[in-house]
Amino acid sequence: MIEAMKKILAFVLLTVFSCNLLAQEQWSTIQAASGNGPIPIFSIDRDDAIATVVLLPGGPFTIGNKSADTGRPDGINFLVRTVGQFSSEKLNVVLMGKPPRAGDLWNGRSRESDDHGSDVMQVVEFAKELKKPVWLIGTSLGAISAVNTALIDKRAVLSGIVLSSMTFRANKNSGVLSMDVEKLTIPILISGHEKDECPGSNPKLIDELKAKLTSSKKVGVAMISSGNNPTGKPCGPNHWHGYINAEAEAVRSIADFIRSN
Fold it and tell me: Residue 182: how many CA atoms within 13 Å on its side-chain side?
C-alpha cells in the first residue's frame, strides 16, 4: 500500500512539474512609443505552441485586475475570459490591456488612429519574440484595432487576423466596413454568433465585408450556434455578442482556422 501511494504521489508531482514547464503565465508592461504610457500585458507561453495570438478586447479595452484566486485578469470581455481556453489549444497567448493615456477606445475613430495602431504593433513585436507565427484576434471594437494594425504592418509581421463579433459600423464613417480592408492580403477569419443582436455587429453584414476582402489569401467564416442564458445589453460581453456559454465552440473554431494556415 505504501509503495503504491508513493508511485501515485510521484506521478502527481511529475504531472504538476510537467504542466509548469509546459505553460508559464506572467504579467508585464512595455512602454508605448506613442507616449500613451506603459502597456499592460498578460501572457501565457507554451513550450509546444504552434502560434501566438495577441488578444484585443472590445468595449473600453480594459482587461481588469489581477485575480486573487487565479492570478489572471478578472475582466469579463470574451477575450479576457478565454485566455486559458486559447492556451489549451496549444497557442501562446498575449492579452493586451489599455495604456493609461490611450484616450477613449470606446470610440471607433480612436481605434483607427495611428497612435493606437502603433501601440498594438508594439505588442505584436513583443509577441514575435516567442518565435511563432503571430495572429491578431480582435473582438467587437477590437476588430477595428486588428484591421488598423494589419493595415500598418508594412514588414508583414502578422500571419493572420481574426475578426470576432466585429463592429462593422461604429461611429459616423467608422467601423471595419469603412476601412481599406481590400488592401489586406493575410488570411482572415470572420467569427460571429448567429444570434448576435448587437446592431453594429449584425451577422447579415458578413457578406458585404467578404465582398471587399478581395486581396486576402484566405477568408473563412465561423458562425457559432451554441450557448445559452444571455444577459445584459445585446452588445455586452454576457450576451450572444460575447459568445456567452459558447466560448468553447468559438475558441476551437478560431484555433482550427489558425492551424489550417
Answer: 5
Rounded Cα distance between 145 and 30, Å, is 18
Q: How many angstroms separate the Cα of 72 from the Cα of each of 44, 64, 67, 81, 94? A: 10, 9, 5, 9, 12
CA dihedral 77, 32, 255, 211 (to 10 degrees): 90
Burial 123-133 (b: 16+ CB within 10 A, else e): bbebbbebebb
Hey, what's the torsion of the CAs at 121, 66, 75, 55, to 10 degrees?
20
How would residue 102 be classed by pLDDT, with cut points 50, 70 and 90?
Answer: very high
The residue type at 188: I
Nearest to 204 by CA among 215, 216, 212, 193: 193
Distance CA(254)–CA(164), nearest Å, equals 9
What nine digits make up the cell of 3?
509503495
Say what the pTM is.
0.91
pLDDT in tens, 197-238: 999 999 999 999 999 999 999 999 999 999 999 999 999 999
The 3-state secondary structure of the chain, one letter per residue: CHHHHHHHHHHHHHHHHHHHHHEEEEEEEEECCCCCCEEEEEEEEECCCCEEEEEECCCCCCCCCECCCCCCECCCCHHHHCHHHHHHCCEEEEEECCCCCCCCCCCHHHHCCHHHHHHHHHHHHHHHCCCCCEEEEEECHHHHHHHHHHHHCCCCCEEEEEEECCCCCCCCCCCHHHCCHHHCCCCEEEEEECCCCCHHHCHHHHHHHHHHCCCCCCEEEEEECCCCCCCCCCCCCCCHHHCCCCHHHHHHHHHHHHHCC
